[in-house]
Amino acid sequence: MGNGLSEPHAIFPCLPSFQALHIVILGLDCAGKTTVLYRLRFNEFVNTVPTKGFNTEKIKVTLGGKVRTAAFHFWDVGGQEKLRPLWRSYTRCADGLVFVVDSVDAERMEEAKTELHKITRLQENQGVPVLVVANKQDLRSALPLGEVEQMLALNELGSHTPWHLQPACAIIGEGLQEGLERLHSMINKRRKMMRQQKRKR
């Protein structure tokens, strides 16, 4: 488990396709990003504190019912307002983004929407697939998935940004496997398209 601040761009070379996929976990503070990371890493609930810098883990994930595995290198970046300007450094060369939202926190959904649209509109993130994790869906006061989609204006992300909205409960891990499978599929589809475009040139 790593938690600290450093110059991210110095340690993020663009990864060759055979290496672990570079995935950045973003979202507002207290959305459950670190809970998602450690549920994936240890397959159990780990009590966390607000991330002051970043956490990073390399995780092998079984896809499609134990048929194959994929290696993911996750970077979970702090979501406090003062840390959000750093997000851009972490998303450089990212294969995919995981954006975690608190489904119960309707008041901050507009803020989450602003940050999501801001990061996906950066030139270097054009076309990078986004898995939006609607966390805390197990709670009675959670917003329905349709409302989360509407409030985040996911349809306004544009045709250049593939996205998938996944209902989840990070504490028990529900929905995370399915979400990662969709993300992996979107990344593969994008890579295939990029290879085809290169051949056409």
UniProtKB/TrEMBL annotation:
Highest taxon of source: Eukaryota
Residues engaged in binding Mg(2+): T34, T51
Keyword Cytoplasm: yes
Localisation: Cell membrane; Cytoplasm; Nucleus, Nucleolus
Keywords, alphabetical: Cell membrane, Cytoplasm, GTP-binding, Lipoprotein, Magnesium, Membrane, Metal-binding, Myristate, Nucleotide-binding, Nucleus
Gene3D superfamilies on file: P-loop containing nucleotide triphosphate hydrolases
Primary location: membrane
Alphabetical list of InterPro entries matching this protein: P-loop_NTPase (IPR027417), Small_GTP-bd (IPR005225), Small_GTPase_ARF (IPR024156), Small_GTPase_ARF/SAR (IPR006689)
The keyword rRNA-binding is assigned to this record: no
CDD domains in UniProt: Arl4_Arl7
Residues binding GTP: G27, L28, D29, C30, A31, G32, K33, T34, G79, N135, K136, Q137, D138
Residues annotated as transmembrane: none
Single GO MF annotation: GTPase activity
A GO CC annotation given for this chain: plasma membrane
NCBIfam families tied to this protein: small_GTP (TIGR00231)
Quaternary state and interactors: Interacts with CYTH2. Interacts with KPNA2; the interaction is direct. Does not interact with ARL4A.
Entry function: Small GTP-binding protein which cycles between an inactive GDP-bound and an active GTP-bound form, and the rate of cycling is regulated by guanine nucleotide exchange factors (GEF) and GTPase-activating proteins (GAP). GTP-binding protein that does not act as an allosteric activator of the cholera toxin catalytic subunit. Recruits CYTH1, CYTH2, CYTH3 and CYTH4 to the plasma membrane in GDP-bound form.
Name of the protein described by the UniProt record: ADP-ribosylation factor-like protein 4A
